[in-house]
Design a protein that fits this description.
This protein is of the alpha+beta class. The protein has 17 helices and 27 strands. The protein folds into 3 domains: 114 residues; 371 residues, FAD/NAD(P)-binding domain, CATH 3.50.50.60; 159 residues, Flavocytochrome C3, Chain A, domain 1 (Alpha-Beta Complex), CATH 3.90.700.10. The strands form 8 sheets. The protein has a 6-stranded mixed β-sheet. Strands 16, 19, 20, 23 and 24 form a 5-stranded antiparallel β-sheet that branches.
């Protein structure tokens, strides 16, 4: 039965009604203001007019603001110098500055996903005002926006057709798709705002076909997209999932666009296009390029923009009584009936919510230290703290199975400025920058630099690579940045680099390579010999050890020398629940568990396409596409019954073993002739072949750990 719950909504919930105001003032860090009215009967306190600078500690590093005041008002707040993240932190600083000036109070809305930066800015402004002579009671009127309703009425009186667990790109796409089809949806999110890992992403999403891509003059072909995805041994991935990934990609993108997501031009995806695998960089022309798919970028704010774009549409569904959502709500268990069908969820607080269908879109486990410690000795993560893998355990308890849990998608170059494993990345370097040399912890060169970095970091002892550069190389580019990939800020003029070198904990500098090696704890003679051998290869143009391309053979001969201690940054986890091509979760016999669906990282992204099919926008593409597919499938499996009593539903008999069906897209017969030889027999109805594929993957020599019952409390 439904619990009587209406969680109080945080003012930083992304659906806040203040969203429109926030966007209207975004980009302005300085507005003129009006004086606050003094309290009746009290003598007005006068500030000393002027400009008051304050340096405060930000999320990544100190920053400086200036506050201009008159005798009784805040006239301007300027961000003078900052190293906050480009798309979250800096935007937060600008919005807080603008809102404080506009409202003449420090009691303004906290920004989604940036509580630390919000509070730091407010405290810095308060410090400046205090220096100007303001009292604690001044500029304290409440200008926060009341949280919007999360349900029309009580949640206990809301009877959903589907429960969606997780509010990232996968869950939001599933929710919108289900709502678009007429389903009633209860959306549960563990965090205090929606966004998941996508909040910390670049906001790139790939697709082929549909209505959105042509608006950016991309002429794409899902037939070719699919064929490209499966150009490999089908024993290493699942071609029927590749089919869904290709053909449902555009409808998923179109669904997000329909409900408010905004995009800017990205680039084409094709054979031999661009520097990032098979994908061009942003803004590349499509002229004279053989491409079949394309990626777009979510507006100017990257990942966060997707959720700001669809926020009003979701709130409209709430007001129409079709959607309810709960934040700060962690799901830990799945409810089943006597036949083993999943009929709802139980939350950590004990509340229960029933529905015919449950879609798991709660992410992977890159924030679960216990699970990752079974795979990596050292690692960091990009920011999302709620991807703890709790729904894996819940699904295993009802008969689900897992795949590919022994390998993750990582980027390298993270500097372990925080020595605790699983800490958030605060500094990274461009570890694949041409000319950088990679050494293991014995001081030996061990890899072709710049190639298969995630495999290198996985296999190297202690998951630690020491990256070597010289002063001449560092003059060609800024090698270090604050934060991680999508939210980074470049270390201009190598100021932070030199600070870390002086500190001598993760960056080691020496006038000679021997001096730098000794500071790094490496054998100076071994490192010097390895570098001398490498420099000789640069002279001959032939890397006799690892075959590095001639253009990347840049000698390191000019002191001072720098050695960077780097470890992997676990961006996403590749393994997850085994699903069929309709996103139904399968048991050990390959039979769908009635009422249970999974998508995105919860279902794992590794085996959807061939391992070498790397392209911009792949993670958001697969998350959105299978969230879309799961919503379509549940609607097909549990069609709405006219006049059905609220809270009651029929349970169909257990599904037959999964067949090759495509949710939302009938099998396109003309594709049968285009499939590569051997693909059709790969569509095994029992999936016995998929369960044995752990031994087929062309990497990962470490044993597959047993993750059952390894969920954080």
């Amino acid at each position: 039965m439904h619990a009587q719950i209406n969680h109080p909504m945080s003012r930083r919930a992304f659906l806040a009604a203040a969203g429109a105001t926030t966007m209207a003032i975004f980009g302005s860090s300085m507005l003129s203001g009006c004086a606050p009215m003094p309290k009746t009967g009290s003598a007005p306190v006068k500030m000393t007019p002027g400009t008051y600078p304050v340096t405060a500690q930000g999320f990544f590093a100190p920053y400086t603001i200036e506050v201009d005041v008159t005798e009784d008002a805040i006239s301007a707040v300027r961000i003078v110098d900052t190293h906050e993240s480009q798309y979250i932190g800096q935007r937060t600083q600008e919005i807080i500055a603008a809102n404080v000036v506009k409202e003449q109070t420090l009691e303004v809305d906290t920004i989604t996903g940036a509580t630390a930066t919000t509070n730091s800015m407010k405290e810095a402004i308060r410090e400046a005002l205090t220096a100007a002579g303001a009292t604690a009671s001044m500029f304290s009127n409440d200008a926060t926006t009341p949280a919007p309703a999360n349900c029309l009425g009580a949640v206990s009186d809301f009877y959903p057709d589907v429960v969606v667990v997780g509010g990232g790109i996968t869950g939001i796409t599933a929710t919108l798709t289900a709502l678009d089809g007429g389903s009633k949806v209860l959306l549960l999110e563990q965090n205090s705002y929606f966004g998941g890992s996508t909040m910390y992403s670049g906001g790139y999403i790939a697709a082929a076909g549909g209505e959105t891509l042509p608006q950016f003059n991309y002429e794409t072909d899902p037939d070719e997209f699919y064929e490209w995805m499966v150009e490999s041994d089908p024993e290493t991935f699942r071609p029927e999932l590749s089919y869904i990934a290709a053909y449902n990609s555009a409808p998923a993108l179109d669904m997000l666009t329909k409900y408010g997501a905004k995009w800017v031009e990205g680039g084409p995806i094709g054979r031999d296009v661009g520097a990032h695998a098979a994908s061009a960089s942003a803004g590349n022309s499509v002229e004279d390029v053989d491409y079949f798919a394309a990626y777009l970028i979510s507006n100017e704010l990257r990942g966060m923009s997707i959720f700001e774009g669809v926020a009003q549409s979701l709130q409209n569904f709430v007001e129409a009584g079709q959607l309810a959502y709960l934040l700060d709500t962690r799901v830990d268990e799945l409810l089943t009936n006597d036949e083993g069908a999943v009929i709802g969820v139980r939350c950590k607080d004990g509340s229960e919510h029933n529905a015919p269908a449950t879609i798991l879109a709660s992410g992977g486990y890159n924030a679960n230290k216990e699970m990752l410690s079974q795979i990596y000795t050292r690692w960091m993560h990009p920011g999302n703290t709620t991807s703890i893998g709790n729904m894996f355990d819940a699904a295993l308890a009802v008969g689900a199975t897992l795949h590919d849990m022994d390998f993750c998608r990582t980027d390298g170059g993270s500097l372990p400025t925080i020595r605790t494993n699983g800490a958030r990345v605060t500094r990274e370097i461009k570890h694949s920058m041409p000319g950088v040399v990679w050494l293991d912890n014995t001081g030996h060169r061990f890899w072709k630099e710049g190639s298969s970095a995630q495999r290198a970091y996985f296999d190297v002892p202690d998951n630690t690579i020491f990256c070597v550069a010289d002063s001449k190389l560092l003059q060609t580019d800024n090698i270090l940045y604050y934060g991680n990939y999508a939210t980074y800020v470049t270390d201009e003029n190598n100021e932070e680099l030199e600070r870390l070198a002086a500190q001598g904990e993760v960056v080691f500098k020496g006038d000679t390579i021997e001096e730098a090696a000794e500071k790094a704890g490496l054998d100076p003679q071994v490192v010097a010999a390895e570098l001398a051998k490498y420099n000789n290869y640069c002279t001959t143009g032939i890397d006799e050890d690892f075959g590095k391309d001639a253009e990347g053979l840049i000698p390191l001969e000019s002191g001072p020398f720098y050695i960077f201690e780097t470890i992997p940054n676990v961006k996403t986890t590749n393994g997850g629940l085994v699903i069929d091509d309709g996103a139904r979760v399968l048991n050990a016999d390959g039979t769908p568990i009635v009422g249970l669906y999974a998508a995105g990282e919860t279902a794992g992204n590794y085996n959807i396409v061939r391992p070498t099919a790397s392209y911009y926008g792949g993670n958001l593409h697969r998350g959105a596409t299978f969230g879309y597919t799961a919503a379509l499938t549940q609607a097909e499996d549990f069609p709405k019954q006219e006049g059905r009593p609220q809270g009651r539903f029929s349970i169909r008999p257990p599904h037959e073993p999964a067949s090759f069906m495509f949710a939302g897209f009938p099998l396109l017969e003309h594709l049968a002739d285009k499939r590569l030889p051997g693909h059709r027999e790969a569509y095994s109805p029992t999936y016995s072949r998929w369960r044995s594929r752990a031994s087929c993957r062309p990497r990962a020599t470490k044993p597959w750990p047993n993750f059952s019952r390894m969920i954080q409390a």
